[in-house]
Amino acid sequence: MRRMSVIALVLVVAGCGQAARPYTPQPGTAGSAPAPATATEGSARPSAGAPGVETIEVGGGKLRVDIDWPDRRDPLMTVITDWYLASRKVMVSGSDRYLKDLDLELQAVRQAYDGVRRYTEEDRRVKGVARLYDLRVTKVLDKGAQVDTCVDESKVRVVSASSGEAVSPQPSIMRAPYLQRALAHRGDDGVWRIRELFYDQEGCAR
Amino acid sequence: MNRVISLATAALMLLGHLDAPGDPGDTAGSPIEHGRTRGIELRNSRIVVSGNGAKGGNTDGYVLKRPCWYEPGMTGAEMLKSQESVRDYWFRYTKDASEEKFQEFLKQFKDKVGKDGRWWGPAYDASDPKGQVCFAALDPFVFVPPGTTPPAGITIRELAEIARASLTVPEPTIKLSPDAKSFVNLPTWVWVEGLGERRRSVTAEIPGVMSVTVVATLKSIKIDPGTTKDRAEVHEEGCGAAGRAYAKGASFTCGVRYLRASIDQPREAYRLTVTTSWPVETTGDAVPFQFAPVEVGATRDVPVGEIQSNVKP
């Protein structure tokens, strides 16, 4: 893995005008539901914070994201679901403006933007059905948190934006469920921001 | 601690290392790595680990008392310059960015220019399961006056711990005489080979700030015959640092004398283990720290048979 040997950048990006969202664990109660955005259409949601599958349609239904909320829903889970939804809106639309709505530190900014670069700069889009499941706040320590989710994109296809045809080869990460991890830090303003993202092709069963 | 201004849309810092994202286009983030054999995996750290003990062997699983810490980085002027250098980046990725907001954001760094002290940033040990969340709990940057260490700031003691955790020693190769099979009441000589240099050192350094070296020296071996005392006598009085190779006519002072055959054991053999012990000490001007020895062992099967003899009158 390439490293910048001398400099490290730490960027804190807070969506301007967004209210601070201090973390208050409320097991079994509602957290803030994933924020609907302009690309969200025809959503079939359970009541906010309720367990069960929340379906969010992105780009007029080009991509459907099913979020399987656990019984013990934690507001911190939206750190990773918000990021996932925003990044997939980018992959459906080709515009990275959705990432500006997220609360990210620099390393996560770089990861988030690099992760969608092929969709903003190349002739690629996604469609199909994605599923997030086994959502959990794995660890919380003072102002730090580790949030994990399993991602199943086996029914997602990467297609050419111009022709709509599936590209070949498809990204290998989509073949089987994988683990996505977000490390988050709560700033002095009470806002949880993603510091760094990780993924792991092990650890998630279908 | 610095306070990140809540209305600002970005704060940038140049401190240590930054991992580049992995496999862009498929998903975001860095891969979680498995199967690491090193004792410590530094992330976002400026610490340089070197020495003949930092590679080519096995660690003993030494765990840092705290898997994350702040490290000293840039001066106030360097920090401001670095923040100003990413101006374009800030405007591109900040919602409703404006010059006024950018200047407001820069103020916290301008305030430190010309002041004694440095900006410190967080780093962690990725080999520790708690390392990531510990790292996430630390602030992105902290301005620290000279001669002081912030809460969770790295100390010379913790740097020595990092060096200690990085210490590796070779896995020993067990040698026996007789080699392939031993017999009841027959002395089985034990020694180890393949250890290379018997003095292994690791230096952990934050360049220009502090450095500490730990040295492990092979001192002794322990022999576990893989069975109970009523089945085996262990002799370690003459083992020295690496056991004692068989020599014709020499007295038997390092090895095992098995008293019962191994026919009733799994695989019809005893599981003999030899553990090398490498006491550790710190060198140089640093206050000496006490560490447990590095202990690394190896195991092999020892089939033990019985010699049947017929005595005819």
Structure description:
The complex is a heterodimer of chains A (206) and B (313). Chain A is of the alpha+beta class. Helices cover 16% and strands 34% of the residues of chain A. In chain A, strands 3-4-6-7-8-9 form a 6-stranded mixed β-sheet, with helices on one face. By secondary structure, chain B is an alpha+beta fold. In chain B, the strands form 5 sheets. In chain B, strands 3, 5, 6 and 7 form a 4-stranded antiparallel β-sheet that branches. A 4-stranded antiparallel β-sheet of chain B has the order 4-11-12-17. Chain B has a 4-stranded antiparallel β-sheet with strand order 8-10-15-14, with no helix packed on it. Chain B starts with 17 loop residues before the first strand and ends in an 8-residue tail after the last strand. The chains are: A alpha+beta (206), B alpha+beta (313).
Question: Key features?
Answer:
heterodimer; A: 206 residues; alpha+beta; 6-stranded mixed β-sheet; 16% helix; disordered N terminus; B: 313 residues; 4-stranded antiparallel β-sheet; 5 helices; 15% helix
Q: How would you summarize this macromolecular structure in one to three sentences?
A:
The complex is a heterodimer of chains A (206) and B (313). Chain A has two helices and nine strands; from the N terminus they run ββββαβαββββ.
Count of discrete alpha- or pi-helical segments spanning 4 or more residues of chain B: 5
Biggest sheet of chain A: strands side by side, in what order?
A: 3-4-6-7-8-9
Low-confidence stretches of chain B: 1-25
State the distance separating the first and last CA atoms of chain B. Answer: 94 Å
The largest sheet of chain A is: 6 strands, mixed
Sheet-strand content of chain B, in percent, reads 25-35%
Order of SSEs of chain A: EEEEHEHEEEE
Number of helices of chain A: 2
Q: Helical proportion of chain B?
A: 10-25%
